[in-house]
């Protein structure tokens, strides 16, 4: 029987609807070595690719082992969707991954679970609503114009632009501006250590998540000490922002009733009687917002640019749409126009389908569950392959090709919309609260770039590879910007 085509039922508790007929140890698994199992086959930079390749060989539900520990991999969309829907009670983020996050950075909503997560989620959601993004839009225009001017000056002088670096700096400036009300101008201050520190911590987290042995709990290598120092500098910077927020709120008590950014909202909530929030929770959520907003958005933009520079017809279509919507403006200035670029929206969907920044998620059941009549014990790490789940359930024509036009077809509406099978912002109750800001950022930068610049492939650059560094990152962005 072809395992790759076996159906998988939705997730259920092991105590419901009769006992399962198979144990986890009956699942197919890749060949490994005695004692260490599959440890040597797990390359950190290409960890996600290894899991996806195994899924193509072994089917939608299998296991692998590391030092005698069994880990499960699921890639059937029904099961993946059901697992995400059961968060944060029956299913939680993998305990090992959460522990690594919490020991590397101050804990926040990203690693919170249960009632703790519900309490923090309300605050974060309140600070990232469409209305909040709308109110921040004038500032977003200013930050985008600053990026445009930087690129225009460099392009006019024929200077090579580090587009990937600038995108990360710009998204960091936007995130801190919205969440904390500060303009740190990382974009033009290339010696600002905050961006470098964030990248250092990101890399260390990804290496620890994919490491078989938690050696850093026994001793620290130089790279671990460097990451510790970077994390401390990030915490110190956030603590400074919080101190500034408290000073502003002391001078203007009205800010407690009507906070102007997420940090003020968190501080106001923290200071309420019996709030249950600690100063550490405020710092943790502020750090989480910075981490979540910098890498994911900039990498999605980078992946789309990599596609567009190789597909000139689609790049021209994005440019024509930007010309029409922006008119005489170099930067989009009307918030309502964010929804007036269907082709750009389609191009973003296509990039997120082919190159999602989160190709998998590590989850863990808090009780025994059943998937496809297989008993999965509580506490078992389950790697849900988000990208591969779409690949398995795919109904698209030539799915390996970059074709934004596929999202503009009339038969992609309603229940037949393939977007329902994508997970670019997660799913279930823990759907990404920053999705409105992320989409606004991406459309602002890409429409500005398409209006003012022409993409040219850097033929001297090495081949682009997918690298897993907490998010899925392009190893290089071979894009040169030329004035239009």
Automatic annotation (TrEMBL):
First and last residue of the signal peptide: none
Coiled-coil features, chain-numbered ranges: none
Residues given in the record as heme binding sites: 432
GO molecular function annotation: heme binding; iron ion binding; monooxygenase activity; oxidoreductase activity, acting on paired donors, with incorporation or reduction of molecular oxygen
Required cofactor(s): heme
InterPro entries per the UniProt record, alphabetical: Cyt_P450, Cyt_P450_CS, Cyt_P450_E_grp-I, Cyt_P450_sf, Cytochrome_P450_monoxygenase
PROSITE patterns: CYTOCHROME_P450
Domain of life: Bacteria
Record keywords, A-Z: Heme, Iron, Metal-binding, Monooxygenase, Oxidoreductase
The family this protein is said to belong to: Belongs to the cytochrome P450 family.
Stated name of the protein: Cytochrome P450
The species this protein was found in: Pseudoduganella buxea
